[in-house]
Design brief:
Strand order of the largest sheet: 3-2-1-4-5-10-9-6-7-8
CATH class of the largest domain: Alpha Beta
Oligomer: single chain
Shape: elongated
CATH superfamily of the largest domain: HUPs
CATH architecture of the largest domain: 3-Layer(aba) Sandwich
Radius of gyration: 20 Å
Length: 275
């Protein structure tokens, strides 16, 4: 994990994400890339595109530069390599573009903010980052002075297509030295008998070599409640799930509404991996 992207709008929630990114960067000798998306009115965007520096744009840009420099001076970033990027682009497209062009390995984001980020984790906009990002996205909800992932819940249907992102998940789990709680959620509308669910999970995990894990089947009224209630029952530090890079929603039982609700309602950090 060499490069960690942290989008910021200078809100408290963005700072919570930066604090966690700093902890991860320090433990893994990673670089942090701080990104601010400066969304401009259409006319201003045209001016930027034509190379003109209009006063309003320069005012906002200079203010952002000042805020970024102030942010880079905080004590918890001391000793960590930090670079900064300002993009004149819509938040979602910009985050994904910067991630690709800067060889980002990991994205850490706060779940609420102001300005361009206020709608980031509401409705369909949630999925634009977590669904289309090619690298894992860690969503931080609250201030965390000591981020840990000792107890890591991963909910899935454990189908064949999960194997590729599961390799990424194991790398992350290895970095955090996590105990993996692998869980299949049974619901009235998607029910598997225990012996079938156990066979699916055992067949899946035997192809991987990870020493510290346990398998669980959890029954609940729907998938979202099942994941949240199971995470509570094992006192999880982190919840993981896979996402599909297409508009029809998340992999199998993770449809769009489940993923949105999970990211919005989970107090715990959520990490997503693209299939």
């Amino acid at each position: 994990m060499k490069r960690i992207l942290v989008p910021t709008d200078f809100s408290d929630h963005a700072e919570y994400a930066l604090r966690v990114a700093a902890q991860i960067a320090r433990e893994n000798n990673s670089e942090i890339v701080l990104l601010h998306m400066l969304e401009l009115p259409h006319q201003a965007s045209d001016a930027v595109g034509s190379g003109h520096d209009i006063p309003e744009i320069m005012f906002f840009k200079n203010k952002v530069i000042s805020n970024l420099e102030e942010l880079m001076d905080v004590d918890y970033l001391e000793g960590i390599t930090v670079s900064e990027i300002i993009q004149f682009e819509k938040a979602f497209e910009g985050i994904l573009a910067v991630s690709k062009t800067n060889n980002i390995d990991f994205i850490v984001m706060g779940s609420h903010g102001s300005g361009g980020f206020q709608e980031m984790f509401i409705g369909s906009n949630t999925e634009k980052v977590v669904r289309f990002s090619d690298v894992p996205v860690l969503v931080i909800k609250n201030k965390t002075d000591n981020f840990k992932a000792d107890n890591f819940v991963f909910a899935s249907d454990f189908s064949q297509e999960i194997k590729k992102p599961f390799k990424q998940l194991l790398e992350i789990a290895g970095l955090f030295n996590s105990k993996l709680n692998l869980v299949m959620i049974n619901t009235p509308s998607s029910f598997k008998p225990t012996h079938i669910a156990e066979k699916i999970m055992n067949d899946f995990i035997k192809e991987f070599n990870y020493p510290n894990y346990s398998l669980h089947i959890y029954n609940d009224v729907n998938v979202e409640k099942g994941i949240l209630n199971f995470a509570n029952s094992v006192q999880a530090d982190l919840i993981g799930m896979c996402t599909h890079g297409r508009r029809t929603g998340f992999a199998h039982f993770f449809n769009g509404s489940v993923s949105e609700d999970l990211v919005n309602h989970a107090i715990r950090p959520v990490i997503t991996f693209k299939i």
